[in-house]
């Protein structure tokens, strides 16, 4: 296979292939040697583009974040209420994690720079998420007596459990979300929000059954 001369094209090809392998098999189980072989490029060429696996992984994670942000930005003007925005964000995450090996999340913690990036992103996301929940309270989608700060911290706690606990690797990420985050989020809604949540959960369950049949 001819190696593209454009370094941007080559970088994109490396990131796309690497993330596919990382997500399918876990980060630890994919070596740079194997990645170079899969891409039909030399190991030297690979290291000319990325200094190490961590830099490659971080670039891939940032690319996914950018794609998700762009899709969410496009959707917001079409939404009828804030809960639809939140649930669309979760749908995007479903598309990302449906076929992810749980080992991927567990392996993330081996990479300090990646975890620093995730921690910094979470600080920014916390502010946005809290304001989003408050807006949902104004729209009478979320209960007026819940604490937006605590709701966000609890939901991220469930997410951390999925990433850090080796026991949860026996479950698929979607299954974990359904039994933790969505159960909790549903309890935070008003009757108006409950209808939106249940329609969303029914739709996701049908999709899951269809995918497994």
Molecular structure report:
The protein has 213 residues and is mostly helical. Helices cover 74% and strands 0% of the residues. It has eleven helices and no strands. Helix 1 (7-25) crosses helix 4 and helix 7 (112-138) runs antiparallel to helix 8. It is elongated and about 60 Å long. It starts with 6 loop residues before the first helix and ends with a helix. The mean pLDDT is 88.
Give the SSE order as H and E letters: HHHHHHHHHHH
Could you list the spans in which at least 5 consecutive residues all have pLDDT below 50?
none
Radius of gyration: 19 Å
Mean pLDDT: 88
Layout: helices, strands, pairs:
Elements: H1 7-25, H2 32-39, H3 43-49, H4 53-75, H5 82-97, H6 103-107, H7 112-138, H8 148-164, H9 173-179, H10 181-187, H11 191-212
Helix pairs in contact: 1-4, 4-5, 7-8, 9-10
């Amino acid at each position: 296979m001819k190696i593209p001369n454009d370094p941007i094209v080559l970088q994109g090809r490396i990131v796309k292939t690497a993330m596919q392998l990382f997500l399918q098999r876990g980060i630890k189980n994919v070596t740079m040697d194997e990645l170079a072989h899969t891409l039909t490029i030399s190991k030297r060429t690979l290291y000319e583009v990325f200094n190490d696996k961590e830099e490659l992984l971080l670039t891939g994670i940032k690319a996914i974040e950018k794609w998700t942000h762009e899709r969410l930005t496009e959707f917001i003007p079409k939404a009828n209420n804030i809960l639809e925005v939140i649930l669309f964000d979760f749908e995007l995450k479903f598309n990302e994690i449906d076929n992810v090996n749980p080992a991927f999340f567990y392996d993330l913690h081996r990479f300090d720079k990646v975890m620093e990036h995730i921690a910094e992103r979470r600080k920014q996301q916390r502010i946005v998420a809290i304001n989003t929940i408050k807006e949902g309270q104004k729209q009478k989608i979320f209960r007026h007596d819940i604490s937006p700060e605590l709701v966000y911290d609890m939901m991220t706690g469930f997410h951390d459990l999925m990433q850090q606990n080796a026991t949860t690797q026996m479950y698929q990420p979607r299954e974990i979300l359904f039994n933790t985050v969505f159960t909790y989020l549903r309890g935070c809604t008003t009757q108006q929000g409950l209808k939106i949540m249940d329609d969303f959960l029914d739709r996701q369950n049908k999709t899951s059954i269809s995918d497994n049949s």
